[in-house]
Each structure stands twice: as structure tokens, then as C-alpha cells.
Amino acid sequence: MRFGEPVYFHLLWFLIPLLLFMLWGMKKKQQLASKFCGDLLLPRLVSPEVKKLRRAQIIFIFLAVAFLLLATTSPRWGYHWEDLHQRGVDIIVALDVSSSMLAEDIKPNRLERAKRKISDLLNMLEGDRIGLVAFAGTAFVQCPLTLDYNAARIFLSAIDTQLIPVQGTAIGNAIETSIKAFRTQDKKSKALILITDGEDQTGKALAAARSAKSQGVKIYAIGIGGEIGAPLPSPSANGGFRKNQRGEVILSKLDETTLQKIALATEGSYVRSVTGDIDLKTIYKDQIKKHIAQKDLKSEHRKIWQERFQWFIFAALLCLVIETYLTGRKPAKSFV
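Now predict its structure.
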């Protein structure tokens, strides 16, 4: 026998105070009846069978509650073998961690918005493998492709702008690193979600996108930021904003044109990040799940245990029926 929810065994401790309360209630009733009738008159008015019936009722109520609590632990016995096949798409998320992602034109800042988007994506995934690539002036694989979404969340939480010492925004390098992270030569079932403000500083992004298309990778870009631009917080202890050599405040703008060209080069799509999950649903639900072929990601011969909680519920109901029957058998002349 196995139990699907063994944590609920702790509820069985509730049976101890329940039993004590029921015994106290029975004793209290007897005391009140004795006080009302007197010790000499009580045996003549109350059948000796009443005490036995009351004890039996307590036992069956106690058993009914016990069986219901055991049912919550999801008892299982008996099993069968089943072949399970998990199908999905390989998805690499390339996240920009350059200093421009600290701009606060999107609250609390661009990077935090992007990380929340990825976290929401993990909640949406339907059996797909996911990997993370972090990039700034260079790129590296933060989390290889995995079906363990909890592990992906741990890697995601460790991402910040200090992760990569080489500053800049090398989108081309990010795409090339992401292509290698797929670790397969199959030209299908591969999607790259690029989350950045689009300020490519190398000029190699389009060439990398064309290379991605030749290897069957579709790029879906999510633009983070605003077209007007926002100042970048200064890393110095004095605070303020970053300035160029002429003392002018540096503004970081969303480059949608570049991101649109990158996406179109691979027959993907581009959306601007918005509050809520509309942008994610557009890319994941409407694009990736509908237009990218799925493949077998995991196959296993699994033992499937049979749920038997219904037998415990039936036993509890049977105990309650018996208790009700015993209640009806109480002698007419009875105060307890």
C-alpha cells in the first residue's frame, strides 16, 4: 500500500481530542440524568442496554471520522504498467542582463519585469523543455534544457546585471549561444524567446538570426522598455544617473526595429512587453504551440497505482448508517 498525500496523517491527531470529548459528553449526560432522577430511580427509568448502545454509537462515530481522515491521505494499492510519452518543444529563453536593463521606464525595472515574464512562462509550459541563456557583452548558458521547472526557477532567481562582467548588448552572440544550447541537429521543435531592449551594439544580430533559421530555430522577441528612453541608474554610491563624457545623461531606448527584423528573419514574431500575460500568451499559446511541431521529449514505462480512497469513504458511511440504526434502537424510557 502507498499513500499519495501522507502529510494528512497528521490529521489523525485530531482523533484523540475527539474521543476524549465524546467520552466526556457521555459521562456528563449520565451525571445530569442521575442528578435529575436520583440514584435509586435512575435504574428503573433507564434500560441497562442504553449504556452499551451509547458506547457503540461513540465507537462507530469515531471510526467514521477515522476512515474519512484516512481517505484524505489518498491510499493506493494495486497497480498497472503504462507507457508514457511526453511531447513538447525545446525552448531557450535568452535574457538580456546588460546595465541598460536597470532602466526604470518599466517598474520596478526592465530586468525584474523580464524575470517575472519568464516565471509566468514556466507556469504556462505544457510539457516543453526550457533552458536559459544570459547575455550582455557576451553570453553563456545559465540553465541547460530541462523538464525540471523548479530547477529553472532557481537558475532564474540568480540572474542579475552583475552576472556577466563584460558589459554591452551582444544580441548576435546571444543567438549563437542559444543555438548551441539546443544540442541537437534536428531542424524542428526549436524556439528561441529573446527578451531584451534591443540595443544591439555589435551589428551581428541579423546574421546570427539567418544562421538560426538555417538550423530550424524560430526567434520570438519580446521588447522590454519604452521608445522615449529612460536614464540608467549610476552604480556609484552617490546615486543619480549615468552620464557620458560630455556630462549628458545617457538614455536607453527600446529598439523595436531591430527586434522585428530578427524575428521576421526566422519567421518568428515580435511583441512589446505589457502588463499581464497577453504578450506571453501571444508568443507561447498562439505562436509556439500552434506553429512549431512537437517531438517526443521523454518516454518511460511507469507503474500507475490505483486510488482506493473510495473504500474508506464507503466504510465511513457504513459506520454512520450503523450509528443511526443504533440511535433508533434506544429504549423509550431513556434520559441518556
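The longest helix spans residues 15-37.
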